[in-house]
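Dear colleague,

Thank you for sharing your sequence with our group. We've completed the structure prediction you requested, and as agreed, I am returning the results in plain text so they can be pasted directly into your records. Please verify that the sequence below matches your submission; if there's any discrepancy, let me know and we will rerun it promptly.
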Amino acid sequence: MKNRTKHSTRPTPHPVVFRDQSAGVRYLSRSTRTSHLSTTWEDGNIYPVIEVDLSSAAHHARQAERETVGAGRR
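Please find the predicted structure tokens below.
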């Protein structure tokens, strides 16, 4: 039997900043995702930024947008 070494095919998580687009809040976490955007965090290090809509503010902003867009369709 051959001695095979197992190589992990899983991507390695690294620190990233998730930025809530609607609320303007940033979270430092870990992810396997990457981004061409970057930001300087409070610790002085530069991290990739992934933009998301996480907060309830995002829900309200989308609802207001739908109401504004739909207002002219009566």
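Summary note from our side: DSSP finds one helix and four strands in the chain.

Kind regards,
the structure core
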